[in-house]
Amino acid sequence: MLVAGSLAIGTTAQLSASLTLEGGTIDGGTIELSGGATLIATNSGGTLSGVTIDGTLDMTGYYPALDITGGLTLDNGTIDIGNPVASNSYATLIFQGAQTLGGSGSVVFGASASRIDTESSGGDSGTLTIGPNVTVGGDYGYIGFNDNNSNIETPIVIQGTVDATTTGGAIVIYSVNGSNSGTIEATGGAVILPGTNWINSGSILATDGGSVTVDDTWTNSGTIAAASGSTAYLEGSFTDPGVISVDSTSQVFLDGTFSVDSGSSFAGTGGRLSQGHAR
Q1: Spatial CA neighbour of 102 closest among 75, 121, 120
Q2: Residue 264 to residues 207, 221, 227, 237: CA-CA distances in angstroms?
Q3: Within 10 A of 117 (CB to CB), how many other CB atoms are there?
Q4: What does residue 151 show for φ and ψ, rounded to 5 degrees?
């Protein structure tokens, strides 16, 4: 158990028993977990500074919270954030300052509306970059900072994958001046994208009965698609030089101002496109 102070890891700490954080800081290096051991976050908090996780970071307990500085890298690692069953005990993972969640691995939201928060530090943008080999998925959670007055303040850059995979669940991504060059997908669940000045050059997909809601001000040079009984809601002010497609089982709803240039295309195989204004 780490209660206070700082534990500096020069290269690798190999752990075959679980380590519980009750405050304090782990500084640098790789935490290599084996034999069922996990790194356990608690409601007493703590900080990971420039750490690599090879194994599982367990944030499924009673209101666990953890601060991140200097980036967080996954080495085929997993972050379980939020209780997988109970909805009344959320977890908070806070990236302090502009950072990258990188490496290779996954973040899995539980059922408890947990948060990956972003905050500016020292006057920086507070940008959180989700790297190309990282997948954020699961049931119900939030990415990005949104205060109680609905002020969205920091950019989210998605190079990897965000996938809402639980029917009835949702992942909400709050961002200003954010971008997606990876994949945002609702595979049975829902993805909601509020915020201003989003740029999509990747893929935004609704499949297997899922739904994607794109709101506020957007530019699309990639692909937005609804398939297999799914729905895409395109709202706000949307500039589209990309591709929007809908299959025969799905729907795309437009609500707001939709500007289409000469490079745009709507591809349909009998699906439904309705509401809104296109020009």
Answers
A1: 75
A2: 22, 9, 19, 16
A3: 22
A4: -90, 115
pLDDT tens across 100-153, in order? 999 999 999 999 889 999 988 877 788 999 999 999 999 999 999 776 555 677
Diameter of the chain by CA atoms?
A: 62
Neighbours of 126 (CB within 10 A): 22
* Residues contacting 270, CB < 8 A, separation 6+: 247, 248
Alpha-carbon span 38 to 249, nearest angstrom: 43
- Calculate the dihedral angle through the C-alpha atoms of 70, 39, 83, 113, rounding to the nearest 10 degrees: 0
- Please state the pTM of the whole predicted model: 0.91
CB-neighbour burial class of residue 88 (10 A; exposed 0-12, middle 13-18, buried 19+)? exposed
- What one-character DSSP code corresponds to residue 91? -
Q: Which long-range contacts (CB under 8 A, 24 or more apart) does 15-20 make?
A: 15/39, 15/55, 18/58
CA-nearest of 207, 173, 72 to 131 is 72
Structure tokens at 237: 């002010």
Place of tokens 């205060």: 147
**Percent of the chain with pLDDT strictly greater than 90:** 64
Is residue 86 within 8 A of residue 66, CB to CB? The reply is no
CA dihedral of residues 79, 82, 84, 88 (deg, nearest 10)? 180
CA pair distance 131, 110, nearest whole angstrom: 21
Is the distance from CB of 233 to CB of 256 less than 8 angstroms?
no
CA 47 to mean position of chain CA atoms: 20
